[in-house]
């Protein structure tokens, strides 16, 4: 093998190693930042990962919102009509956040069974609900496109 070919081969090997390392690190970063969606029923069934961040979606249970005066701490219960998960959030809630509202919260489950949200997202108008929340509610036996969400909130305490 001539010195020129050896040099070219070295460049090709180094280029392939660099591309391989880049792909590996990019896939690791994406895997670490990937957040899956779970409904309250799936969380109660133990399908959600323990200690990992994920998205929890459902409806804010009517009468469950608690706020301390002079504090940005809020507590509420998220439901999909089958199961209920208490949520704690420290921050400013979206303007459209209210009871009976479909929301998605990002965070982790604490050891005491309370979902610690670090971000809360609410729908942007009265006709929109996150596709994940719609699917979770349909799986729980309620079609959110029909009827008033507060109607089944009253049916299940």
CATH class of the largest domain: Mainly Beta
What's the mean pLDDT score? Answer: 83
Number of helices in the DSSP assignment: 4
Amino- and carboxy-terminal Cα gap: 80 Å
Unreliable spans: 149-157
Please give the number of β-strands.
Answer: 7
Q: Give the SSE string.
A: HEHEEEEEEHH
What is the spatial order of strands in the main beta sheet?
Answer: 2-4-5-7-6
State the domain count: 2
What is the beta-strand fraction? 25-35%
Indicate the percent of residues in helices. 25-40%
CATH superfamily of the largest domain: Nucleic acid-binding proteins
Shape: elongated
Question: Would you kindly provide a written description of the structure presented here, covering whatever features stand out?
Answer:
It is built from four helices and seven strands; from the N terminus they run αβαββββββαα. It is α+β, with helices and mostly antiparallel strands. It folds into two domains: 1-34; 37-155, Beta Barrel (OB fold (Dihydrolipoamide Acetyltransferase, E2P)). Strands 2-4-5-7-6 form a five-stranded mixed barrel. A hairpin with a 4-residue loop joins strand 4 and strand 5 (84-90). The termini are far apart. The relative contact order is 0.16.
